[in-house]
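stage 2 :: seqdesign
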């Protein structure tokens, strides 16, 4: 079983859902971003989602875009990724997924990237802008290296597309709560619950909902039907406004929302 799936299942055994925390690598600088990731793991994150900054982050909202632009301006380069992942993985023992747009992987070389990530102790990739039918090389590389591949499912996806995503994903399926970019929202779209059920109907064993989750109450609401809740913008805002101390406090607050029956996972495995 993948380390990501094992982390979700371990949370379920404890009677809760999984908290997946996102932070951009290199923000505000490489050293601080490493300490931030460790802080996040030490304060409740079951899985870390780390995003190398990218020059054209089409899926990211304003706060994350601001952070990634700062990271690039402060000198982050792809060569910084793998040493950072290695240190974070070694210090936390928490699965580290890299959320990356596809062009940097392609430019680096898919097999070379997979080997470097595996050697660094990374758990896999979340790839928001490549679909399984266009990812044969990555699927082959992930199978060879044992890395997880997390594809995104959207409310507008057809049943045929969802079936392909479920067959192709490992670890979990990233369930997009709403159409659009990342960010905090007062209310999560009801489409997330419907989409999660559609994924279950196609055989998805583990789903995690992301985009727009920013409070412990929203985490708890998502975990009524899904296995994990993914939070990004609220954590980046906390780091920006209050450094590691506020990040730790925000992570603890969000993690408290996972304490419940974890009904999503129970339903999927019953």
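stage 2 :: out
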């Amino acid at each position: 079983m993948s380390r990501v799936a094992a982390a979700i299942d371990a949370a379920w055994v404890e009677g809760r859902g999984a908290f997946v925390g996102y932070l951009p690598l290199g923000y505000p600088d490489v050293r601080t971003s490493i300490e931030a990731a460790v802080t996040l793991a030490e304060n409740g994150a079951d899985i870390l989602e780390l995003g190398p900054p990218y020059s054209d982050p089409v899926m990211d909202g304003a706060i994350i875009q601001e952070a990634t632009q700062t990271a690039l301006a402060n000198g982050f380069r792809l060569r910084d990724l793998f040493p950072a992942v290695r240190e974070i993985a070694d210090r936390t023992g928490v699965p580290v997924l890299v959320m990356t747009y596809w062009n940097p992987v392609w430019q680096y070389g898919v097999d070379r990237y997979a080997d470097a990530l595996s050697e660094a102790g990374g758990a896999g990739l979340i790839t928001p802008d490549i679909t399984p039918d266009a990812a044969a090389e990555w699927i082959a590389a992930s199978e060879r290296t044992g890395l997880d591949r997390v594809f995104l499912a959207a409310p507008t996806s057809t049943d045929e597309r969802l079936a392909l995503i479920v067959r192709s994903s490992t670890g979990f399926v990233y369930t997009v709560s709403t159409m659009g970019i990342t960010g905090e929202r007062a209310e999560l779209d009801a489409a997330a619950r419907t989409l999660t059920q559609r994924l279950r109907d196609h055989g998805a064993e583990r789903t995690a909902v992301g985009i727009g989750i920013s409070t412990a109450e929203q985490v708890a609401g998502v975990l009524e039907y899904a296995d994990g809740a993914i939070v990004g913008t609220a954590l980046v805002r906390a780091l920006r406004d209050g450094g590691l101390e506020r990040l730790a406090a925000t992570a603890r607050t969000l993690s408290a929302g996972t304490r419940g029956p974890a009904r999503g996972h129970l339903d999927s495995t019953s």
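stage 3 :: structure notes
- The beta strands are 18-24, 47-51, 96-99, 124-126, 148-150, 152-153, 173-176, 207-210, 228-231.
- Residues 93 and 155 are 33 Å apart (CA to CA).
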